[in-house]
Design brief:
The protein is mainly α. It has 7 helices and 3 strands; from the N terminus they run ααβββααααα. It has 2 domains: 118 residues, Orthogonal Bundle (Arc Repressor Mutant, subunit A), CATH 1.10.10.2910; 37 residues, no CATH class. It is globular, with a radius of gyration of 17 Å.
Length: 169
């Protein structure tokens, strides 16, 4: 069988803890808002919040985008990617839809540039916190994996990945 999975903390590119906790609160607020409507799946949430399009694109560099057109928010997800990747991109775009709505209305699209880099970083952390809430991840880990942190194997990571329906990359 496989050996122990060793990931040095300095290679994980983790956000600063105070920043992560701030975004965690935003993700929790949004999750609760949609849960009150009976929505928990990211695609259902996006369909409620915007006009959702999930179609393949020939551009591998573009996972998705959000825009504002003729009084309507539109989210486009490139379905050429894995479902987990698509879900992550959807949560990323949900952040922009909720917290950057005024920018979208004015500029129509957030470009991947220095001007919007901080908002994109927030959207990335939001995606992680939205799809894998810290406390619930811990609860599920102890329920379905329940090994010491130094004994985590690749199969344990895959099990968590499957449970939360997220990409492992």
């Amino acid at each position: 069988m496989g050996g122990v999975l060793k990931l040095p903390k300095n290679n994980l590119n983790l956000p600063e803890e105070s920043f992560r906790l701030q975004i965690k609160d935003l993700a929790e607020d949004v999750r609760i808002k949609f849960a009150r409507k009976g929505l928990s799946d990211i695609f259902d949430i996006l369909s409620e919040a915007a006009f959702l399009i999930r179609k393949p694109l020939d551009i591998d560099e573009l996972s998705g985008f959000s825009t504002y057109f003729e009084g309507q928010f539109i989210i486009y997800l490139n379905s050429n990617f894995t479902l987990g990747h698509e879900r992550y991109t959807g949560a990323h775009e949900l952040y922009h839809l909720i917290y950057n709505a005024n920018i979208l209305k004015k500029e129509k699209i957030l470009l991947d540039d220095e001007k919007h880099k901080a908002e994109d970083e927030k959207a990335d952390v939001f995606s992680s916190e939205f799809l894998m809430p810290e406390d619930y991840v811990k609860e599920v880990f102890y329920k379905i994996v329940n090994v010491d942190k130094d004994s985590v194997l690749p199969r344990h990571i895959i099990r968590m990945h499957n449970y939360f329906k997220v990409s492992y990359l």
